[in-house]
Specification:
With about 170 residues, the protein is of the alpha+beta class. It is built from three helices and twelve strands. It folds into two domains: about 35 residues, no CATH class; about 130 residues, Mannose-Binding Protein A, subunit A (Mannose-Binding Protein A, Chain A).
């Protein structure tokens, strides 16, 4: 497509008459349907306007043709954090696609892949510098936590938070 546009420009044609459909956002090799944007080579949507429980927000992502984001790659996780800070999004709780509900202590992504514990994902807290997750049976859903500089934290699934969806 880029080569065709370049050739058209060389021939004096206007590239403005050749537009991509507005529902697609192109960047690099990834094309994302609106409202999703390319972040770290994947299509994500940071929704800071709608708020709800983990299950509510998962259903919201599904209604947008996606699901809760899976952050199993440190480079993608870093790109997302830079995107949040660089876009001026509010620093709030953002639900992401991990849980240990039904299997306490065994954290898995929504596709049942195990979640890596410890660094570089999980927050440290308290005087003893305890590494999350440490919420026990009352905190079974995963969020990026603004209190802990957007590191992973386990929260109660009925806590109201915003969401990051992935397509």
């Amino acid at each position: 497509m880029k080569n065709c546009l370049f050739l058209l420009l060389l021939l004096g044609a206007s590239a403005s008459c050749f537009k991509l459909p507005q529902k697609f956002i192109m960047k690099g090799e990834v094309s994302c349907e609106s409202p999703y944007q390319e972040v770290g080579g994947r299509c994500m949507f940071v929704d800071f306007l709608n708020k709800g429980t983990w299950n509510d927000m998962r259903n919201h992502c599904k209604s947008l043709g996606g699901d809760l984001v899976k952050l199993n790659d440190p480079a993608v996780y870093n790109a997302l954090i830079l995107h949040i800070h660089g876009s001026g999004f509010p620093l709030v709780y953002y639900w992401i696609g991990g849980t240990d509900e039904g299997h306490e202590g065994l954290w898995v992504w929504i596709d049942q892949e195990p979640i890596q514990m410890g660094t570089p994902y999980w927050a440290n807290a308290g005087c003893d510098n305890d590494q999350m997750p440490n919420g026990g049976t009352g905190q079974n859903c995963l969020a990026l936590d603004y209190v802990f500089n957007m590191y992973f934290n386990d929260l109660g699934c009925s806590t109201e938070g915003y969401v990051i969806c992935e397509q």
